[in-house]
Amino acid sequence: MRVLAKDMVRAAGEKSGEELEVSGWVHRIRDMGGITFVVLRDRSGIMQLVFDSKPLDADGNELTLESVITAKGNASLNIKAPGGAELKVSSVRVLSRAEPDLPYQVNGNVSQFSLETILDNRMLSLRNPKIRAIFKIQATIIDAFSAYLRSRDFTEIKTSKLVGSGTEGGTELFEVEYFDRKVYLAQSPQLYKQALVAAGFERVFEVCPVYRAEKHDTPRHLNEYVSMDVEMGFIESEKDLIELEKALLSHIFEEVAKRNSAELEMWNAAVPSPEAVAKAPTIPYEETLKIVNEEAAKGKNPGSRIFDINPEAERLVCEWALREKGIDLVFVNEFPRRHRPFYTYPLNKGDGGAAATTMSFDALFRGLEITSGSRRQHDYKTLAETLPKFGLKAEDMAGYLSVFKYGCPPHGGFAIGCERLTQKILGLANVKEASLFPRDRKRVEP
Amino acid sequence: MRVLAKDMVRAAGEKSGEELEVSGWVHRIRDMGGITFVVLRDRSGIMQLVFDSKPLDADGNELTLESVITAKGNASLNIKAPGGAELKVSSVRVLSRAEPDLPYQVNGNVSQFSLETILDNRMLSLRNPKIRAIFKIQATIIDAFSAYLRSRDFTEIKTSKLVGSGTEGGTELFEVEYFDRKVYLAQSPQLYKQALVAAGFERVFEVCPVYRAEKHDTPRHLNEYVSMDVEMGFIESEKDLIELEKALLSHIFEEVAKRNSAELEMWNAAVPSPEAVAKAPTIPYEETLKIVNEEAAKGKNPGSRIFDINPEAERLVCEWALREKGIDLVFVNEFPRRHRPFYTYPLNKGDGGAAATTMSFDALFRGLEITSGSRRQHDYKTLAETLPKFGLKAEDMAGYLSVFKYGCPPHGGFAIGCERLTQKILGLANVKEASLFPRDRKRVEP
C-alpha cells in the first residue's frame, strides 16, 4: 500500500516497524559517502529517503534526477527531514529512468529562470512544486466558482466554440476551416449565455476556453484563456451582478485559503478575507477617473492626465482602495456608452446620446481588470434599432435577435478571467505563468 | 419576494392570504370566457395563474405565448392545477412581450417535431421543459464526474485546444488560421493529460470541447463534443481504469437519480443502480466477438458474420449483458494492436506483432460506445521505436516524447463522451439532441 509524502509523519507513527511503500520522482540526490539522501516528490509533496549505499537500478545504473521510482522501507520521524519523516530504504525499483541530460533544473528556484525558459521547457517546468502550486490553486478557483453558483441555482452549460460570427463586432477573430465554409473561434459564450437565460434556465454559468486574435503581447493578455462566465435573469441593474460577484469572490478566496494554504505559502501570498471583500467599493466611471487623476498627481508625473480606465488607472484606483477601504478590489460601474458593446443596457432609459452611461461594470483586483459585466438590453425593438449605430446589420444578427423577439427577461452577466484571478492571487508578474500551455502570437507549443 | 413554481404549494400553505410574486414565461393560455387560466413557466417548473378578466399589458395588448411577466396575487391549493397550487392574480406586469408570430410551438409535445425542426428552432425549442431537462441532467453529469474525481485526489486541468498537430495521427483535424501559421483544434487533451500526470499531478481530469472533422453524419457523431477526460498515474493495467470508471459511473447515476428525478420522469427514463453497475462484465475483445456472433446467429440474419466491434456488435453485446448480467453496460478490453493508437500499452511485454493485444478498453452502455481508454506506453525508447510503425516521425513528436524522456510513471486514462452518456441515460435517438448547440457538417448555427 502506497503512502503519500503528506502522510509520512502519520505513517511513521502509526505503522512504526512496518514496511511502507512510496512512489514518486527523484527530486534531489545528496551522496554523503556511505549514505545517500534522496528527496522524492509525489503529488502531495516531498519526502526524504535514506539509502545506506549508492542507489542503483536493476541494471546497475545510478539513479538520475526525475526518474520515477518505488521504494520500500521503514519510516521514522526526523525533524530535520523535509516533511518531518524519512524512509530508510530496503529496496528500490526504477519505474522510469530519466535520461541524465535534463535540460531544465526542475528542483531549482523558479525565480532564477526567465519566463521564456520556463515556457520553452513547459513539460519540465510544470514539475517544479512551486509552479505546480499555481495550478492546484487554479483548480480550486474553478471548483469554488462552480460550486457557489450551483448553490445559487445556476445551471452549468457547455456551448459551442465554433460560431458563424463574432459577438463583439467581428474583429480579432481566429478563422477556422469548417468543411467548405469558414467559422470563427468564439470570443465569449455571451450570445449563448443570454439565449439560455431566455430559454428558461434563468441562471447559467460556463467555464470554457475563449479566443482573442489580438496581436499585442503584454503581461496581461493571452490569445486563448479560460473564461468563467455567468449570466442571470430577472435582475434590476449591474448592482445585482456586483453583489453576486462579491459573494462569489468571497467564496473562492475562502476555499483557496482553506484548501491551498501550502501553495499560498510557497508564493508568500494571501487572499482577502470575506470581511475585506465586503468592503470593496463600487465607484462610477467618472468618479473613478477623478480619483486616479488625483492619485496620479501625487506620483512621479504630476502633470500627466488619465482619460480612461487604462492599466495605469487600474493600478492607481486599487492602490487608493487598499489605502482608503482596506481592500484592493474595486468595482467601477456606469461606463460611458462608447466604451461598451452594443448589447449593454443604458443607465437612463432612452438615453442613447454621446454622454450616455450604461449599467455596466469592471472588477479590478490588485491593479488588474479581472471582470467585465453588464445588464444587457433585452428589448427586441431597441436592440434592432441599436445595431446599425454600432455598424452591425440586423440581418446578420437574426439568430441573436430571435432570442429577444419571443420573450426575454431583464438579465445580465459577467465573466472572470481565470488566469488573471490566479495571477493576482499569487502575485505573478505575467498572466502566462497562470496558463498551463499559454498561447501567444509566437507560442503554440507545447 | 419572488416565489418559484416548485415552492408554490408550500407558499400557498405558509403564506396564505399574503400577496405573492411570481415571474416567468407564458407557457399556455386558456380563455374560459369570464376567467382566464395562464400556465406560467419558470426555471423550476410550471404553475397556474388565474385571471378573473382577460389579462392585458399596460398598453392594453393581450398576453402572448412566451411573453415574460411578473404577477402578484394570492396563492391557494388546487389539486387540479399543475403543481397543486394556483395564484389568483391581482396585478400583472409584462417584462418582455413576445411577438405573436411564434415560429415553434414551445408548449408542444417534443415527439411531434423532427430533429431538424427542433435544431432549426434551437433558441425556442430549448424553452420546452422536456428539452431543457436534457441539459439539467447533463449539468449533473458534469458536476458528479468532477466531484467524484476530486474526492479521489484528481486535479482539474484546463489545457489548450490549439495544437500544432493531431495526437491520433493527423487526420480529421480542423485547421485554424493562427496569425501567420496554421494550427489545429485538439481532437482530445490526450497529450496534455499525459504530460500533467508525468509532471507530478499524477491524477488529472478535464471537461472540455474536442473536435473531429469527420464528414459522416450519423446519430452517434458530433463534430464538436464535450469530452470528460481522465488520466491516472501508477496503474498496473486497464483494469484499474475500468474499476475507476465503474465507481465514477455509479456516482454519476446516483447523483442523477437524486437530483433529477423529475427530469428522468419526463423522459420515462431510469439510471442503473450501483449494484447493477458493479455487475457490469469486462470481456476481452475476442470473446466479445464470439458473443456477438452467437447473438447475431439468433437474429434476423443468422448467416451474417461480425468481424469487429461495430455499432451492431455494441448493440448485441449490451443486449446479451442485460439478459445475462442484469445490466446493459459492458467493458470490452484487450483490443488488438491494429485497432488502437500508437501510445497504447501492449498486453504482453515486447509483443508488437500483428496478433498482439493491448491494455485497452471501451465502455459500451445501452448499445453505444461511451468511453475509450487504455494504459499508455510510458517508456521513452519503446515509444520512439513505435512511432515509425504508425507512420509517425519522432522529430514531429519531440514535444510529446520529452514527457517520457525524463521520467514518467506507468499511467493510463479514458474519456467519457458527455453527450453520448446523456443520450443513453435518457434514451434519445440522436446524440445531437444532447448538445445545446450541435455542430455537424451543415450546421454551425445558432
Automatic annotation (TrEMBL), chains A, B:
Binding-site list for L-aspartate: 168, 212, 372, 376
The organism's taxonomic lineage, starting at the top: Bacteria, Pseudomonadati, Spirochaetota, Spirochaetia, Spirochaetales
GO cellular component terms given for this protein: aminoacyl-tRNA synthetase multienzyme complex; cytosol
Region annotation (Aspartate) ranges: 190-193
Oligomeric and partner information: Homodimer.
UniProt keywords, alphabetically: Aminoacyl-tRNA synthetase, ATP-binding, Cytoplasm, Ligase, Nucleotide-binding, Protein biosynthesis
Primary location group: cytoplasm
Protein family: Belongs to the class-II aminoacyl-tRNA synthetase family. Type 2 subfamily.
Subcellular location: Cytoplasm
Boundaries of every Aminoacyl-transfer RNA synthetases class-II family profile domain copy: 135-446
Reported function: Aspartyl-tRNA synthetase with relaxed tRNA specificity since it is able to aspartylate not only its cognate tRNA(Asp) but also tRNA(Asn). Reaction proceeds in two steps: L-aspartate is first activated by ATP to form Asp-AMP and then transferred to the acceptor end of tRNA(Asp/Asn).
Enzyme Commission code(s) on record: 6.1.1.23
One Gene Ontology term of the molecular function aspect: RNA binding
Species of the source: Leadbettera azotonutricia (strain ATCC BAA-888 / DSM 13862 / ZAS-9)
Site keyed Important for tRNA non-discrimination: positions: 82
Reactions this protein catalyses: tRNA(Asx) + L-aspartate + ATP = L-aspartyl-tRNA(Asx) + AMP + diphosphate
Protein name: Aspartate--tRNA(Asp/Asn) ligase
Any single biological process term in GO: aspartyl-tRNA aminoacylation
Record's keyword annotation contains Protein transport: no
NCBIfam families, A to Z: aspS_nondisc, PRK05159.1
Binding sites annotated in the UniProt record for ATP: 212-214, 220-222, 369, 417-420
